[in-house]
Amino acid sequence: MSQVIELSAAAPEPPVLPHRGLRLLSRALAILFTLFVAAQILWVVAAGLVTIFFSDHVRVGAAGVSIYERKPPPIPGTVLYSSQSALTRAVGMADIVIATVPILLIFWELRGLFRLYARGIVFAQENAALLKRVGLWLVVYPFAKFAANMLFQLAGGTDKAWFRMELVYALVLGLIVFVIAQVMEFGREIEQEKDSFV
């Protein structure tokens, strides 16, 4: 008489981290990144309100944008934002949205990552996938910032100050984070193969 042993096809559960201090810190960081997401959304809303209602308080020049409490006096090399066409201001708003979305998504993915850590899940496939997306959005950010500013300039905007070293840092950091995520995935695969031989 032969015996049949049924093997479960379900993927093994990811190990849960018992370290209470790290889980508490991760919970705090998840809350912090949730606040950062909210701050980015508020920033876009505030930029929209300024564009629609307070564009006569904004001066734009090749060096960037300056916002004032009251209508500012003429400043050489700048123009009053309200003096620019409705199309230019609309594209200026699109510029802000395009440049903000990658940052918002970085914070959103980090929020998800630290929520997993807070639940004690550290070496799951989800962790690596979230880290990969953080790396991806860090790499996208400099290109989004450049494209957004070029659109604004094509629409008649005078702000040409799109390049900052932080964009280079974001690009390099994004590539590093992406590689780390792949290393995590590779380590997890090795661990699973090792467990399958036991």
Task: Please give a structural write-up.
With about 200 residues, the protein is mostly helical. The protein is about 65% helix and about 5% strand. The protein is built from four helices and three strands; from the N terminus they run αβββααα. The chain has a three-stranded antiparallel sheet, with no helix packed on it. A hairpin with a 2-residue loop joins β1 and β2. The longest helix has about 35 residues. The two termini are about 25 Å apart. The relative contact order is 0.13.
Percent helix, as a range, is: 55-70%
Low-confidence regions: 4-9
Helical stretch count? Answer: 4
Biggest sheet descriptor: 3 strands, antiparallel
Structural class, from secondary structure content? Answer: mainly alpha
Percent in strands: 5-15%
What integer value in Å does the Rg equal? 24 Å
Strand order of the largest sheet: 2-1-3
Q: Tell me how many strands there are.
A: 3
Shape: elongated
What value does the average pLDDT take? 86
- Compressed to H and E, one letter per element, the order equals HEEEHHH
Distance between the termini: 27 Å
